[in-house]
Amino acid sequence: MRCFRAMNGLKSVTIAVSRDYVCAKPRRLSTKTSLWDNSMNDKRFPELSTERLELCEITSSHVDWYFEHFNTPEIIAGQGFPGPSNLEAAKEELDRYIVGLFKEGGGFRWGIRLMGESEIIGSAGFYSWDKENAKADMGYELRPPYWGKGIMKEALERIVTFGFEEMGLNRIKVTIMSNNPRSMGLIEKVGFRREGIMKDYSKFEGEYTDEHFFAMLKRDWLAKREGI
Question: What topology is assigned to 35-170 in CATH?
Answer without folding.
Answer: Aminopeptidase (3.40.630)
